[in-house]
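User: I'm curious what two different proteins look like when written out as structure tokens. Can you demonstrate?

Assistant: Sure. I'll show them one after the other, since each token string lines up with its own sequence. Here's the first protein:
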Amino acid sequence: MKRIHWILTTLILTGCSEQPAPLDTRVAKAPALESETARSAPKSPAEKSALRDTTVGGFEFKVPGDWEEKPPKSEFLLGEFTVPGEAGPARLTLSSARGGIEANLDRWRGQIQTGPKDPPASQSDVEFDGRTATLIELTGTYSDMFGGGAPNKNSKLLGVAAALGEADFFVKMTGPAETVTDRRDEFLKFVASARREKK
């Protein structure tokens, strides 16, 4: 009898001494949100070359993916874009004005001071809305009539003037010569994509 009592006591004490298994208190982590770094990472070549549609001043354009549309800095402008580049960003503006093509080309010529080592100015024909427009290319020290800052050396200006009748249309890109030169083909395709907005 004593032996049975001893066995039962041993079993009870052994059972009581066992510790319950610890609870799993780990909490599943929520999926990480996209970081600021990831959002601000440089666009891939595919994203840069992807085109989007925009309308400025009654004309539809095809815009490269990494051009940033911004509010115009001047009330005289219809639209404005920042065009990124390794040497620094370029600025692209669109405007419409009366006064004739030559008067505006002369004004652009006056904004660039060409040095002896700078490429000579050039002028050629390009397409805008299916018609012939004038392209001017200038390299040198640029003074922005709306910027208010110091003149910028080693700059380039690409300007297109399209005669449309009462008011002419103007597209201009200015910035570091390297950036504007690298983006020249995109600029010309942007200008050539212009089509009057369908109403």
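Here's a second, unrelated protein for contrast:
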Amino acid sequence: WDKDFVDVVVTKKTKHGSKALENVDIIMAQKDDITLETKHLKRNPKVTVIYEVHVPKKLLLRNIKSSNGNITIKDAGKTDIVRTSNGTIKITNCTGKINVNTSNGSITAEDINGSVIAHTSNGRIRLENIDGLTNAVTTNGSIQILNAVNIGTLKTSNGSIKAHIINMSNDVDIKSSNGSITVYLPNDLDANIRAITSNGRIKLHEFPITVSDVTKTKVLGSIGNGGNLLELKTSNSNIHIYDDTKIVF
């Protein structure tokens, strides 16, 4: 928010009687940094703790972690590390080099003035309007990237990938083991391309590519004047290449 102080509302919940609430302490410490922490006074306290925090936009959110819960950050200025083991993460309208990680949940980031590195083991990733480098890795979920200035690596083992590629100022590596890959490219893009699938087909959908080697499962060639490499690879599905006027997400 626009105010020059931090406001914190902490709610403790339990289904095991009010006495159980004493198993958890809330610690707030302020030196050069402001630290908020949930401290368990016994193992498995069976208490849920919810933080609702308003901070000045000039404050750096350096280390936001939860073991078993969702994290939502909105309009918060510069953001660094965001991590949860069992929950979803959603970040909207922030800045910085954001490293987002969850083991069992989805990740959504929108309207980010900076870069995003997103990693989840069991969930989908959707990144939209990212004004910086974007990397996304998931084991069991889909990946959707829309309107990201730079894309580096997109990888999933069991899910589809859709990506709108605006430019190619660096190599782009997009891979899925068991899912389709769909990319939307501008007609004025300059790049080299290598697309390979083991058990599927490659469909260009009338997108202009100068090919040097082409089969049903492989396309090697260049787009425009050539340039950095766009690599698309999947084992058990199709690869689709469209003009970016035909985006469907």
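A detail about the second structure: DSSP finds no helices and 19 strands in the chain.
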